Amino acid sequence: MGIINEKSFIETVHMKGLQISLIASGDGTEVIYHKLENGTRWGLEPAEQWEALEYIYVLSGELHLLDPEEETFLKPGDSFFKNPVAVTYFFQANGPTEFLYITSQPIYHLYSKATKELLELAVSIEEKDGYTVGHCERIKKLSMLVGETIGLKTNQLKCLNIAAFLHDVGKLRIPLDILQKPGKLTPEEWNIMKEHSLHGRKILEEIGLPFLKEAGKIVEQHHERYDGSGYPHGLKGDEISIEAAIIAVVDSYDAMTTERVYQKARTKEAALNELYQNRGTLYNPYIVDTFLELQKDEF
């Protein structure tokens, strides 16, 4: 490309699939370079009491605006801007994509801090819970595939993206001797383990960013079950958010097909059959049917 080079960067933050770099700032305006890997998603959302310009200019690759009512593909030289941003806009990179984000709201340090914290949380979860590297990313990818297939709105997709990635963040507050116990948990230990979904919501709320608070509500519900047998509140049916219902199916599938310290991995076929057998009881039947249909072509 030759337009942007590392010497141009004041500061850079890396996260899986995403690089953000502050190029220039002054008088409250910031120019932020973004580099997204194929399939990585990125969003713009309204900010309270903020009515200034937000501008995107694509340098390379392609940005797909994921909006059923305003589906747009931005190619090199194309731009997208709103003044102000009144609703959430969610983009996906089709192939490696670079763009400049220009905002008259100085947000880079808040933005980069949140990015670092999210990455650190995800790595901590996987290390503590004994999952293979990439568990959080797999849950996010499959959850988003289901969410997009059933036509969730942009704001729902944004929250699902974060909640799926950090669904088990509350396990950071569960004692290691319980979390990594190779044998069956005692009733007392199981009660402590079940608190992780409540801890997850609290952790995301404590960070203080509005979109994380919304994601926290989904995280809290991802172990609720369609027939009311789940936790922490025994919600059932439509009392469970559709985003949480998606994560419940995807997380169960990944857990069944992953080798764990206390359980052998099942085959893909066995895991999918288990989901089917529990559609309408443990899992939302619409989500199970969507997931099973997708697996024929995608997984």
Describe the model.
By secondary structure, this protein is an alpha+beta fold. It has 2 domains: about 5-105, Jelly Rolls (Sandwich), CATH 2.60.120; about 110-295, Hypothetical protein af1432 (Orthogonal Bundle). It contains 10 helices and 10 strands. It has helices at about 110-130, 135-150, 155-165, 175-180, 185-195, 195-205, 210-220, 240-255, 270-275, 285-295, and strands spanning about 10-15, 20-25, 30-35, 40-45, 55-60, 65, 70-75, 80, 90-95, 95-105. The strands form 2 sheets. The chain has a 6-stranded antiparallel β-sheet, with helices on one face. β1 and β2 form a beta hairpin. It starts with 10 loop residues before the first strand and ends with a helix. The model has no long low-confidence stretch (mean pLDDT about 85).
Features:
single chain; 299 residues; alpha+beta; Jelly Rolls; Hypothetical protein af1432; six-stranded antiparallel β-sheet; four-stranded antiparallel β-sheet; 10 strands; globular
